[in-house]
Structures are given as structure tokens and as C-alpha cells.
Design brief:
Layout (H helix, E strand, L loop, with lengths): L1 H4 L1 H20 L4 E2 L4 E2 L3 H6 L7 H30 L3 H15 L8 H13 L2
Antiparallel strand pairs: 1-2
Helix pairs in contact: 2-4, 2-6, 4-5, 5-6
């Protein structure tokens, strides 16, 4: 039973993991400084000139996003293990943790919101 029963959720979680790991790479619109200089990915931050006043701030921001993505993905992997073991409640706990980790980015990313909603629906079936 287990895995087949939750195959759709496992697929959603796998997509969430992939997206989380891409947050800093794909990026989103973020501006730095009074002039609102756009630095929308880790790669863009790395390419800024050394003397750019907000370079360190941009690098810190995107490195933090990258770390949050890795942490959220790790909880996603725990959720998959729980789903394969037919433990929907444990999976929900892990996905909630991923959702919580995503919170600082929620203006730009809702990767885990839809996954969490799907698991909650399954729990109430």
C-alpha cells in the first residue's frame, strides 16, 4: 500500500525539493541600496564588482536563500521517507518545517504552501 497510496504527494514533495534547491539560482526580484539596484540571484551577486557598496549584503542575502533552500529540501526528503512508510502525520510535520523555513522568502516563493495544503487535505480524508 504505502508508496502507491501517496504517490501523488511524493511527486509534489519531490518537485518542492527541486524548487527549493533552485531558489538562489533561479532567484527573484530583490533590490539593494537607496538606488534600488536589482540583484536577483546568487550568480548575479557573485558577478557584482568588488567595489560595489552593497555586494556583501547581496551575497549574504543570496547565500542565506541558498541555505534555506537546502534546509527546506532536507525536510522534504524526510517527508518522502515518512510517506513511503505510510506515516502521513510525520510527513505533514516535515513539510510544515519546510514551510516554516521558507517563511523569510514567502513574498517570493510559495513552494511548500501548496504541498502542505495537499497533505492537510489528505489527512482529513
Amino acid at each position: 500500500m504505502g508508496e502507491a497510496m501517496y504517490e501523488d504527494l511524493i511527486e509534489q514533495v519531490e518537485k518542492g525539493i527541486d524548487r527549493s534547491l533552485e531558489w538562489a539560482k533561479v532567484g527573484w526580484l530583490v533590490t539593494f541600496g537607496r538606488n534600488g539596484i536589482e540583484v536577483s540571484s546568487l550568480q548575479q551577486a557573485k558577478e557584482l564588482p568588488e567595489n560595489f557598496v552593497y555586494r556583501e549584503e547581496a551575497l549574504d542575502y543570496w547565500h542565506n536563500v541558498e541555505q534555506l533552500g537546502r534546509e527546506a529540501a532536507a525536510y522534504g526528503k524526510k517527508a518522502i521517507i515518512s510517506l513511503r512508510g505510510s506515516d502521513l502525520k510525520a510527513a505533514e510535520n516535515s513539510i510544515y518545517q519546510a514551510l516554516y523555513i521558507e517563511r523569510p522568502c514567502e513574498k517570493h516563493s510559495t513552494t511548500w504552501r501548496a504541498v502542505h495544503d495537499s497533505v492537510l487535505r489528505k489527512l482529513t480524508e
